[in-house]
Amino acid sequence: MAETNCLIVRAYGRQLDQLRAEASTIARESKIGWWIEQADRGKRFCFENAEAKKAFASICENFAVPYLDPE
Q1: Domain of life here (predicted)?
Q2: Does the residue 35 lie in any domain?
Q3: Do 19 and 53 meet the contact criterion of CB atoms below 8 Å apart?
Q4: Number of domains forming the structure of the chain
Q5: For 30-51, how does the pLDDT look when each residue is reduced to its tens digit (9 = 90+)?
Q6: In angstroms, what CA-CA distances link 24 with 5, 27, 40?
Q7: What global pTM score does this model have?
């Protein structure tokens, strides 16, 4: 899949668990797939469309979690 729908976040422990839950909710509501993988500078959250990525970025901002857009 293209990396254009991915964000790299730096989160650990409960915060990472919370982000996983939020990503799962976004994907389920959008009826799309998502996945998480290790990146050099954190965890890469990837979604099958740009709208889900945008929604996830908004959640990161609300939780004050720094993220990078590798696009």
Answers
A1: Bacteria
A2: yes
A3: no
A4: 1
A5: 999 999 999 999 999 999 999 9
A6: 15, 5, 23
A7: 0.91
